[in-house]
């Protein structure tokens, strides 16, 4: 006991030491910080913001200095003043220099329920305390800031507003959420706290501060305990309710709803949230729900607790077993079968439609029986050449009397349209569309009224693709004269191919001719100067070269090349097919006449066969009788052919007399 007795006093000694430390340490720290306060306050005069750049913190008997000095000299001066203080045992320098940050990066990170860390760079023009006040004001009350951002130059204008905007968005994110700025681009990542917070974030990000843009957004929707998705169909349209796992899935549901009820109202009550079983593909689930919705007139398709159910009024009696089969065989993976509670009611109104497009003719709606279906198809098919007939009709009771007669009467009318649709609702038939011809468009309402059975009402609204022209002929001639006044269209020497200079003038002339049916134009093409026409029997080089040069007279982007203009029914001035004139053979050398021969025969060229005399004479005579192709006519034909392919009617254009050497001549005929 005597040897170990001193150990009994150790607890008391430790208690005395702890009490002294707890009591004296804060006082020592306060005295050390107070000693350096005057030095820190003096650094405010070196900044334009009036806020000291030097920050001091006592660590035991050491004094830590932090901040960003304007320059090296200022930093050395401040550290020397701190070293001269009597209280601190040691000065720990963490003082940096103000630099230019490029890019200028700043971030706010939620590190706890009521704690946010600031890092990166802050504008040197804004004091630390001033910026912290802006950020704290945008956060929830009681939030503590851990600010390690360093002052730097290069911040974008109105940085404080962008920082406050990001901090406000951070309030809707869970722990780990990050709001960042890179120059003028704002980004956000993390998980939303709840559904209202997620919707508020989506709305706020659509309106960033002036001068800033939204960059990368990676916000996870919140997770919900019970995931559900509902499609409600009624006479008013479609109502979507429940959740969608992402914004893309939500858009997919809205598109499917718009396609399911074209022209009807789609009411969106969907919220973005997680909670769907990962084994279930959301887009496949949405598509399956709308397949079921196609089978109901009014009712609900709902997904809840991983099961799909459908209730309501079926579109027809056939739809009830179809829905059961779809539920049994077409469910997506991971989806459980729910109830199918459908009732068949008489259709009201009873609807059927025939839609005509350039690609196909499609039948939709309901028909009373197969005989009516075959009657309608038989009325359509003989009037269609390439377009397929797509039959999507279903059989259902409740059809109005004489439905087959009304559809068979309207089918030829809609088949003759360029595009159009005949729609039946009970005993009312509506025909709409567009005809290629004005006369047919004008006669369609009268023909429809004559063809409908008694008791039916019909309405036809048909527009003509090319409406009647009402322009004044004198104005047309004046515009044509102005178009041709400055035109000097010349062919290349020896050629009959249109050059790029022709296209703007001929296109403008063709457009005017189509708009002015009374306009008549004569085309006169010239020959080349100093190249007279070859005499009969002589070679015709221009005629031989012309077919090659006339291979194409339409430019690639013209109506003729693209096929948008109709082809002319007949060509103007068809060219006779002419064989090229045979080349003259060099006269053979004559052999000396044998003695006693009174009529020596002409010698034949070496290495050639001697054709019969009569055949040679006949070929020579044919070559002389056939008229050669001349260059002016080829050139005129090239211009006329281009205008015809551009849509000018054949009776509006003709060939005039050959023009003298120079540009092509255009004449406006009375």
Automatic annotation (TrEMBL):
Basic and acidic residues bias spans: 572-592, 615-624
Q: Which Pfam families does UniProt cross-reference here?
A: BON
- Cite the residue spans of the region called Disordered: 524-634, 651-670
- Cite the BON domain residue spans from the record: 231-269
Keyword annotations: Signal
Cite the record's Low complexity compositional bias ranges.
536-547
Q: Which InterPro entries match?
A: BON_dom (IPR007055), OmpA-like_sf (IPR036737)
Superkingdom: Bacteria
**Position of the signal peptide:** 1-24
Protein name according to UniProt:
BON domain-containing protein
Taxonomic source organism: Methylobacterium pseudosasicola
């Amino acid at each position: 006991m005597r040897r170990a007795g001193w150990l009994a006093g150790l607890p008391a000694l430790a208690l005395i030491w702890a009490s002294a430390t707890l009591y004296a340490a804060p006082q020592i720290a306060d005295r050390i910080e107070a000693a350096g306060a005057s030095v820190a306050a003096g650094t405010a005069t070196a900044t334009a913001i009036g806020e000291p750049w030097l920050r001091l913190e006592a660590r035991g008997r050491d004094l830590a200095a932090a901040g960003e000095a304007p320059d090296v000299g200022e930093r050395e001066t401040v550290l020397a003043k701190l070293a001269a203080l009597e209280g601190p045992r040691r000065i720990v320098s963490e003082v940096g220099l103000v630099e230019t940050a490029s890019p200028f990066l700043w971030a706010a990170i939620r590190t706890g329920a009521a704690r946010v860390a600031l890092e990166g760079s802050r504008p040197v023009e804004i004091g630390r305390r001033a910026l912290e006040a802006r950020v704290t004001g945008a956060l929830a009350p009681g939030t503590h800031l851990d600010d390690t951002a360093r002052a730097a130059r290069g911040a974008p204008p109105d940085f404080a507003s962008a920082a406050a905007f990001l901090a406000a968005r951070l309030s809707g994110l869970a722990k780990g959420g990050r709001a960042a700025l890179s120059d003028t681009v704002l980004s956000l990542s993390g998980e939303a706290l709840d559904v209202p917070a997620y919707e508020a974030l989506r709305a706020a990000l659509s309106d960033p501060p002036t001068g800033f843009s939204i960059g990368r957004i990676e916000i996870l929707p919140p997770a919900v305990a019970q995931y559900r998705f509902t499609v409600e169909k009624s006479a008013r349209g479609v109502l979507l309710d429940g959740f969608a796992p992402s914004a893309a899935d939500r858009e997919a549901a809205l598109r499917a709803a718009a396609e399911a009820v074209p022209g009807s109202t789609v009411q969106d009550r969907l919220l973005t949230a997680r909670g769907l079983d990962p084994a279930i593909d959301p887009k496949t689930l949405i598509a399956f729900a709308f397949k079921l919705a196609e089978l109901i007139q009014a009712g609900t398709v709902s997904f809840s607790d991983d099961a799909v159910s459908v209730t309501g009024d079926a579109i027809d009696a056939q739809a009830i077993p179809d829905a059961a089969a779809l539920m049994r065989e077409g469910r997506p993976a991971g989806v459980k079968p729910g109830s199918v509670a459908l009732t068949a009611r008489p259709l009201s109104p009873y609807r059927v439609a025939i839609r005509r497009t350039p690609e196909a003719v499609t039948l939709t709606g309901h028909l009373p029986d197969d005989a009516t279906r075959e009657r309608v198809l038989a009325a359509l098919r003989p009037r269609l050449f390439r377009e397929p007939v797509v039959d999507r009709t279903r059989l259902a009771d409740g059809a109005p009397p004489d439905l087959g007669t009304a559809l068979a009467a309207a089918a030829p009318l809609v088949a003759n349209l360029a595009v159009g649709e005949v729609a039946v609702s009970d005993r009312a038939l509506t025909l709409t569309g567009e005809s290629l011809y004005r006369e047919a468009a004008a006669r369609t309402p009268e023909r429809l009224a004559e063809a409908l059975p008694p008791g039916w009402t019909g309405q036809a609204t048909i527009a003509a693709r090319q409406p009647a022209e009402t322009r004044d002929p004198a104005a047309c001639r004046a515009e044509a004269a102005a178009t041709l006044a400055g035109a000097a269209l010349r062919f290349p020497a020896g050629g009959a191919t249109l050059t790029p200079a022709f296209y703007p003038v001929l296109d403008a002339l063709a457009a005017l001719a189509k708009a002015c049916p009374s306009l008549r134009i004569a085309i006169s093409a010239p020959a080349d100067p100093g190249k007279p026409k070859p005499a009969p029997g002589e070679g015709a080089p221009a005629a031989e070269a012309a077919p090659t040069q006339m291979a194409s007279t339409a430019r690639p982007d013209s109506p003729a090349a693209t096929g948008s203009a109709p082809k002319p029914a007949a060509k103007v001035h068809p060219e006779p097919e002419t064989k090229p004139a045979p080349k003259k053979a060099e006269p053979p050398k004559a052999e000396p006449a044998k003695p006693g021969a009174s009529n020596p025969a002409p010698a034949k060229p070496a290495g050639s066969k001697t054709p019969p005399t009569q055949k040679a004479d006949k070929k020579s005579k044919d070559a002389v009788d056939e008229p050669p192709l001349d260059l002016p006519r080829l050139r005129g034909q090239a211009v006329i052919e281009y205008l015809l392919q551009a849509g000018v009617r054949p009776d509006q254009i003709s060939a005039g007399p050959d023009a003298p050497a120079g540009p092509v001549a255009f004449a406006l005929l009375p």
